[in-house]
């Protein structure tokens, strides 16, 4: 496929051709290609998993001996592989860590969470920060000692302070902006390892 389409449309069409419900899969693929974070047999927690592209992609990497658990406010409507399960929940639920599926330790926590955009910059920025902090808190509770944390972020006045928080818990921290991210977006990913 030629890239004469807009970047967003190009990746959206490519995702559909490859059987993924969203173009975000190519962002995770770029992260995996660069850092090789996920392996056969891994257990992975996916925060903000709908519509399911990351679930399917991770399932293929980890194989039948691995497990992917996805959490989201909305249902994942695609057919999922046998090694994937989802829970419809709010990650801000105070009892989330009591869920039986989260009683295991995970090799990685991945977060593609984004707030519902209100159009009010201060509100959207604060909501983003709260999601990042919740994802970090969950990762600290469920990760194995050598666990990895991948978190979608947006460049704003809180992003550098949040990265400092992440550095308190992880030895290796990298900022990565996938090519699949639209040029106009302030989105990037923090890729962290213990």
CATH topology: Rossmann fold
Shape: globular
Strand content: 15-25%
Can you count the beta strands? Answer: 7
Structural class: alpha/beta
Which percent range fits the helix content? 25-40%
Q: What Rg is obtained from the alpha carbons, in whole angstroms?
A: 16 Å
Overview in brief:
With 194 residues, the protein is α/β, with parallel strands linked by helices.
Layout: helices, strands, pairs:
Blueprint: H1 7-17, H2 25-35, E1 43-47, H3 53-62, E2 67-72, E3 84-88, E4 106-111, H4 121-142, E5 143-154, H5 159-167, E6 172-176, E7 187-193
Parallel strand pairs: 1-2, 1-4, 2-3, 4-5
Antiparallel strand pairs: 5-7, 6-7
Give short descriptive properties of this protein:
194 residues; alpha/beta; Rossmann fold; 7-stranded mixed sheet; 5 helices; globular
Commentary on this structure:
With 194 residues, this protein is α/β, with parallel strands linked by helices. The chain has a single domain (7-193), classed as Rossmann fold, CATH 3.40.50. Helices cover 32% and strands 24% of the residues. The chain is built from five helices and seven strands. The chain has helices at 7-17, 25-35, 53-62, 121-142, 159-167; strands at 43-47, 67-72, 84-88, 106-111, 143-154, 172-176, 187-193. Strands 3-2-1-4-5-7-6 form a seven-stranded mixed β-sheet, sandwiched between helices. The longest helix has 22 residues, at 121-142.
């Amino acid at each position: 496929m030629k890239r004469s389409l807009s970047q967003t449309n190009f990746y959206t069409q490519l995702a559909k051709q490859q059987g993924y419900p969203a173009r975000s899969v190519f962002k995770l693929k770029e992260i995996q290609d660069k850092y090789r974070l996920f392996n056969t047999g891994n257990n992975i927690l996916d925060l903000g998993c709908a519509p399911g592209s990351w679930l399917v992609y991770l399932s293929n990497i980890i194989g039948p001996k691995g497990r992917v658990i996805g959490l989201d406010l909305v249902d994942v409507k695609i057919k999922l592989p046998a090694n994937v399960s989802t829970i419809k929940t709010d990650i801000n639920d105070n009892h989330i860590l009591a869920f039986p599926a989260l009683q295991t330790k995970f090799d990685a926590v991945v977060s593609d969470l984004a707030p519902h955009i209100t159009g009010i910059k201060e509100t959207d920025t604060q909501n983003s920060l709260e999601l990042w902090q919740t994802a970090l808190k969950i990762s600290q509770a469920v990760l194995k000692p050598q666990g990895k944390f991948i978190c979608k972020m947006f460049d704003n006045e809180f992003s550098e302070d949040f990265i400092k928080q992440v550095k308190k818990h992880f030895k290796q921290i990298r900022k990565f902006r996938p090519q699949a991210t639209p040029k106009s977006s302030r989105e990037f990913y923090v890729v962290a390892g213990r």
